[in-house]
């Protein structure tokens, strides 16, 4: 009885503060009688469908979705004691008993592999007939549906679709440039000069030659310098990925002529001490350390988190001003920002072959693509974490000013979790720092971004070829790459032998199956 | 000593009767004997039970899944539903230069570990045994055991920091003697010494406990009579302590050889770089990159099975050799 009255009281307050509820949203109702579906939801922030992965704590967002649609989700996540979502997915499939909905992190590869074998329901026709909002999204974003399709031409999951374009940017210690009387480097030669000045002219003023001109949290980011010599380091937001060249062929960046030139220059810069000598072992805390100790001069990293150091270090490092600058023009004069947000993530949710009512499941998936469903999945419960002001969803001040980052708060509400949903960039913009916003506007003013390679779906025979050769090829490429940068071996002298070895190891077999699959998938 | 002629005769008779009875009904009598034995000693068998269950559930039952080494395994189709492919995965492995390189590295790293790592705990135990000052003994033992209890991730962090070219203690000390800093963890030629040394530092102390226990079991009367005979401490160590713990040393050696291919690969993953794969990549890290990360469980199972077969052969040979030359063996 007490419990009931408490619930009523909460409902009462919500109703009062949330005019959204007062509106008629009966069109969002999917079923007349309440229906329950089971769900596997495994992702880095929560292993289970419930607050922090605890199934007994229902997400506030889930409560509202239940209210609106009549459908509730019940947790049935496998592999809860592991944080590895791949492992959890394999466990789920191997145990044989699958819930209605399978969702979470990195599901694209398994659903595309096991979907055609019968483990998941193909969504093409279901969406066409029962999910008008998802279909509208595909229609307005050509190419994406093809990108998530399996080799049989069907697609098996509804992805998490990020919004916003920019991810990483070039950052420089503007206060160091000012102190040394330098302008922001506009091309590769000026960049070299600036790094040399950082190395030699003691911009941190401690009398020691201890500055690290270029550093990176992930050693792979040193490869971004390749773009300065018109080479590439990756075709997507995954490191060392294939890309589509100007002839429309899938190739690997580390087997191209431009790479030889680019890498010999990077090796040169490394030998000159312009690149962190410990680039390969310093690890993920290098940004904290090198900025905090006033040692690092330049990096390539995420807009939002890297801009955050300006506020965090303002007391510690006098005059600290670490800001984004435009990618310097390459030797042929091209400004390129290689990294961007991928428009589709391998995360999302799928319908298992054991779902008894796939039609209502797809209608439920569609609910999250309706206007209100999208607001709910992005911002949380209206009236609790945000209000509609002049037609815009605006976070409440207590959400924006909390000690906990907004995304972390959202994860606990059940918003921004890795269901299949379409992210709304207005969510992130509201808590992006002023420095990062300026940087994004700067990047927006130029045409810097390049198309991403969204991957190909290999059939079983192609997958076999890929699995047989690719892991060893990748190992060999990275081995040689590091050796060349570190100065054991010379890329120019070793190049012919390197290409010959790649071919011997099956490079051409791999690109052949990639291109066959690419042509099939994208009609190229 | 007096001898009773009757006793001798009756005992022989008894034996003859028992033998003929056993001949007539061998089976039931043995069953009865086992039953009696179980009834008498059931507490001991009860203690054994959890271990037997553990063996059955975690070591024998999974052997069913070993067949995926010969199958084109799909998680969805299951172990039984996947198609047989014969020795395809083994062919893939042995035609891969990187697997052969990993195999070579595994053997070399294990061999180094055996040569340098195996004697160390014995040496430590003998040294501890000679320390007379109890407080000093306990303190140094505790300090030397400690690294065993630190997680590999932390140990790797310590190693990376210690060998860092800019701030690491090793390069700092080298700097005092005017030696240029070396970026140790990207130099293939340095990987094995660093890895084996780290392993010894982490485990030698803890492994010495077995030998300390063996030393504690040596009868004090041996030392007492040696003292009476005027033996020095050095002589007592060589003539009494080491021969007395030799069976323990042999058993530990056989176990060690059986585990030889099981290089602690989590430590390698934490310490290696593409730049050092040449000397650092072992079978287990190869399996991890190729098999587990790439989702090729069948290939990983094939490599694991190969590992197990090699380990089996190694342990059998070590046991046979030891049986022949020292009459100490596991079975």
TrEMBL record, chain A:
Which InterPro entries does the UniProt record give?
A: Bact_solute-bd_prot1 (IPR050490)
| Signal as UniProt keyword | yes
Which key words are in the record? Signal
Q: What is this protein called?
A: Carbohydrate ABC transporter substrate-binding protein, CUT1 family
Q: What is the lineage of its organism?
A: Bacteria, Pseudomonadati, Pseudomonadota, Alphaproteobacteria, Rhodobacterales
UniProtKB/TrEMBL annotation, chain B:
Keyword presence, Nucleotide-binding: no
Domain ABC transmembrane type-1, chain residue ranges per copy: 103-318
Provide the Gene Ontology terms for cellular component: plasma membrane
Give the superkingdom in one word: Bacteria
Give coiled-coil spans as residue ranges. Answer: none
List the InterPro entries hit by this protein, alphabetically.
MetI-like, MetI-like_sf, UgpAE/MalFG_permease
List the transmembrane segments. 42-60, 109-132, 144-163, 240-258, 299-321
Similarity annotation: Belongs to the binding-protein-dependent transport system permease family.
Protein name per Swiss-Prot or TrEMBL: Carbohydrate ABC transporter membrane protein 1, CUT1 family
């Amino acid at each position: 009885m007490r419990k009931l009255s408490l619930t009523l009281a909460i409902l009462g307050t919500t109703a009062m503060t949330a005019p959204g509820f007062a509106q008629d949203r009966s069109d969002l109702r999917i079923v007349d009688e309440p229906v329950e579906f089971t769900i596997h939801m495994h992702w880095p922030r929560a292993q289970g469908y419930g607050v922090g992965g605890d199934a007994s704590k229902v997400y506030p967002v889930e409560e509202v979705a239940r209210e609106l649609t009549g459908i509730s989700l019940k947790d049935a996540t496998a592999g809860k004691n592991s944080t590895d979502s791949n492992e959890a997915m394999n466990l789920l499939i191997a145990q044989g008993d699958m819930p209605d909905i399978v969702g979470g992190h990195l599901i694209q590869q398994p659903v595309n592999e096991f979907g055609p074998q019968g483990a998941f329901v193909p969504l093409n026709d279901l969406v066409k007939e029962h999910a008008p909002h998802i279909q509208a999204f595909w229609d307005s974003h050509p190419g994406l549906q093809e990108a998530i399709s399996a080799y049989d031409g069907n697609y098996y999951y509804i992805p998490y679709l990020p919004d916003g374009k920019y991810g990483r940017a070039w950052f420089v210690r503007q206060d160091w440039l000012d102190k040394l009387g330098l302008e922001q480097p506009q091309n590769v030669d000026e960049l070299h000069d600036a790094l040399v000045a950082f190395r030699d002219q003691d911009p941190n003023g401690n009398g020691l030659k201890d500055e690290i001109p270029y550093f990176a949290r992930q050693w792979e980011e040193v490869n971004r310098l390749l773009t300065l010599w018109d080479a590439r380091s990756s075709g997507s937001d995954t490191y060392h990925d294939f890309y589509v060249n100007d002839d429309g062929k899938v190739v690997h960046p580390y087997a191209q002529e431009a790479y030889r030139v680019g890498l010999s220059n990077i090796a040169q810069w490394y030998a000159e001490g312009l690149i962190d000598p410990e680039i390969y072992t310093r690890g993920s805390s290098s940004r904290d350390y090198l900025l905090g100790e006033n040692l690092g001069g330049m990096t390539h990293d995420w807009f939002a988190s890297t801009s955050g150091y300006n506020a965090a270090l303002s007391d510690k490092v006098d005059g600290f001003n670490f800001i984004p600058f435009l990618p310097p023009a390459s030797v042929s004069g091209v400004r390129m920002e290689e990294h961007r947000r991928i428009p589709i993530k391998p995360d999302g949710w799928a319908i298992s072959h054991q779902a008894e009512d796939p039609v209502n499941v797809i209608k439920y998936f569609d609910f999250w693509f309706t206007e209100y469903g999208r607001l709910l999945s992005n911002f949380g419960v209206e009236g609790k974490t945000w209000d509609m002001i002049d037609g815009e969803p605006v976070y409440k001040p207590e959400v924006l000013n909390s000690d906990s980052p907004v995304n972390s708060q959202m994860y606990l509400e059940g918003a921004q979790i890795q269901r299949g949903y379409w992210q709304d960039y207005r969510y992130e913009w509201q808590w992006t720092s002023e420095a990062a916003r300026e940087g994004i506007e700067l990047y927006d003013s130029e045409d810097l971004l390049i198309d991403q390679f969204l991957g190909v779906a290999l059939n079983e025979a192609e997958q076999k070829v890929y699995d047989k050769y690719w892991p060893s090829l990748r190992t060999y490429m990275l081995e040689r790459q590091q050796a060349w940068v570190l100065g054991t071996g010379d890329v120019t002298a070793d190049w012919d032998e390197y290409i010959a070895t790649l071919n011997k190891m099956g490079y051409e077999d791999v690109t052949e199956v990639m291109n066959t699959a690419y042509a099939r998938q994208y009609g190229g | 000593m007096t001898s009773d002629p009757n006793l001798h005769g009756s005992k022989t008779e008894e034996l003859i009767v028992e033998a003929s009875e056993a001949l007539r009904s061998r089976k039931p009598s043995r069953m009865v004997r086992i039953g009696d034995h179980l009834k008498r000693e059931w507490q001991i068998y009860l203690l054994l039970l959890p271990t037997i269950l553990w063996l059955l559930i975690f070591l024998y039952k999974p052997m069913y899944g070993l067949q995926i080494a010969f199958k084109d395994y799909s998680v969805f189709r299951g172990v039984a539903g996947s198609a047989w492919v014969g020795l395809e995965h083994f062919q893939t492995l042995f035609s891969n230069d990187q697997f052969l390189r990993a195999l070579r590295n595994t053997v070399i790293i294990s061999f180094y570990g055996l040569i340098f790592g195996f004697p160390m705990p014995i040496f430590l135990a003998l040294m501890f045994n000679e320390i007379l000052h109890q407080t000093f003994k306990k303190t140094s033992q505790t300090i030397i055991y400690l690294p065993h209890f630190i997680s590999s991730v932390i140990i790797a962090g310590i190693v990376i920091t210690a060998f860092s070219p800019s701030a690491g203690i090793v390069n700092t000390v080298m700097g005092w003697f005017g030696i240029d800093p070396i970026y140790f963890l990207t130099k293939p030629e340095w990987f094995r010494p660093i890895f084996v040394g780290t392993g010894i530092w982490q485990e030698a102390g803890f492994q010495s406990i077995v030998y300390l226990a063996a030393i504690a079991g040596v009868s004090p009367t041996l030392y007492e009579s040696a003292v009476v005979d005027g033996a020095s401490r050095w002589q007592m160590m060589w003539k009494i302590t080491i021969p007395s713990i030799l069976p323990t040393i042999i058993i530990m050696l056989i176990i060690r050889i059986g585990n030889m291919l099981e290089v602690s690969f989590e430590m390698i993953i934490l310490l290696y770089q593409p730049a050092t794969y040449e000397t650092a990549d072992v079978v287990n890290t190869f399996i991890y990159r190729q098999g587990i990360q790439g989702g090729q469980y069948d290939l990983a199972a094939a490599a694991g099975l190969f590992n197990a077969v090699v380990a089996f052969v190694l342990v059998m040979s070590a046991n046979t050799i030891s049986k022949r030359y020292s009459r100490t063996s596991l079975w």
